[in-house]
Amino acid sequence: MKRRFYSIIKKRNSLSGKNYLRHTLVIIWGLGLFVSSYSQSPKDYQLITIAFYNVENLFSPVDDPQTRFHQNTLRGEAFYTEAIYRAKIKNIARVISEIGSELTGTAPEIVGLCEVENRQVLEDLINQEPLLRENYGIIHYDSPDGRGIDVAMIYKKSSFIPTFHHPRSLGLSDKNQPQQIRYTRDQLVVSGRLAGEEVHFIVNHWPSRSGGELRTRPYRLQAAHLTKHIVDSLFLINPYAKIVVMGDFNDDPTSTSIQEVLGGRSKKEKLGIQQLYNPMESLYRAGHGTLAWNDRWNLFDQMLVSSEFLSREYAGWQFYRAGIYNPVYLTNSYGRYKGYPYRAYGDGGFTGGYSDHFPVYVWLIKELVNDSR
């Protein structure tokens, strides 16, 4: 009978000259293979978290002349005082610090973010106590979005070294007025060395469904085509590129934009080279979601990985598992919206909550080389 046995151990590891506590997996594979007894000895594996979080209007109470937010939203005292801002920042920092930590024992190495106003709110975020000790870096560009919201990425400087990053602009056109281009959130492309291995990240926040899903669907299809173009460009450079596509897509894993245009696949065994695996689809089909509307769950927040992450060559980073981070404190505990994400803002102003979206994450795993063996 074939079985996998897992146990978790704590191990001190050194990276970039800094010692910190890491959890590693000791995995003994009972694969029924004819191998010599000494080759069945346990191996050490490193596990890390890559996450994405829509942080629901992470805005400063101070008007930023570089954004359009102050032109489109009332900055009333019920929403954007300094005290509310500090509470919101503290809440978001806590959530980020805990994503995936039940197995890794630490905060995520990489976090994609959306609905941030500017770089200053990111600086304030990473300087909160739960994140300050992690020494995060920031990658952010101001986008031309009408609401003044951007995508961004934070990363642990101890484990990720960016080598390239650039925003790809997304101009939306309507079939009735093809000459009029409306720019929305950029798509952020980041390449770098994740513990020595090249990995590429694409952070998205596709056009919303405001005005109706059917009417706005063409805009998300245009966004999907841009993301697919970026993915194909990376594969053109390296057919075996390791790519993580993350974001709030405002579409579900079974939507045309994800399945047909972007090419997200849910079956590992049917995955070919230069394709994207979408582990979120099985969660969605099982009834899980990251946001709720009209008593229906959607799973707009997703993370897809390229097929090279599933090659089972554990000398490099491999996909281990995906999940939705939805502990009890992130959900409403009573009332009409019981079980929904505990959002930060309601009709009456700041609720003391976190976001109207749950974060999502993937765990990546790789074998640790032990020179003493």
Characterize the structure shown.
This protein is α+β, with helices and mostly antiparallel strands. It has a single domain (3-367), classed as Endonuclease/exonuclease/phosphatase (Deoxyribonuclease I, Chain A). Helices cover 20% and strands 37% of the residues. The strands form five sheets. Strands 1, 2, 3, 4, 5, 6, 18 and 21 form an eight-stranded mixed sheet that branches. A seven-stranded mixed sheet has the order 7-10-11-12-17-14-13. A two-stranded antiparallel sheet has the order 8-9. A hairpin with a 2-residue loop joins β15 (291-293) and β16 (296-298). α2 (82-98) packs across α4 (119-126).
Chart the SSEs and their pairings:
Blueprint: E1 3-15, E2 18-30, E3 43-58, H1 69-72, H2 82-98, H3 101-104, E4 110-116, H4 119-126, H5 129-132, E5 136-140, E6 150-156, E7 160-168, E8 171-174, E9 177-183, E10 187-194, E11 197-205, H6 213-237, E12 243-248, H7 256-261, E13 264-265, E14 276-277, H8 280-285, E15 291-293, E16 296-298, E17 301-306, E18 318-324, E19 345-346, E20 349-350, E21 360-367
Provide a quick synopsis of the model.
The protein is α+β, with helices and mostly antiparallel strands and 373 residues long.
Shape: globular
Share in β-strands:
35-45%
SS elements, strand count: 21
Taking the sheet with the most strands, its summary is: 8 strands, mixed
Summarize model confidence as the mean pLDDT: 86
Keywords summarizing the entry:
8 helices; 8-stranded mixed β-sheet; alpha+beta; 7-stranded mixed β-sheet; Deoxyribonuclease I, Chain A; 21 strands; disordered N terminus
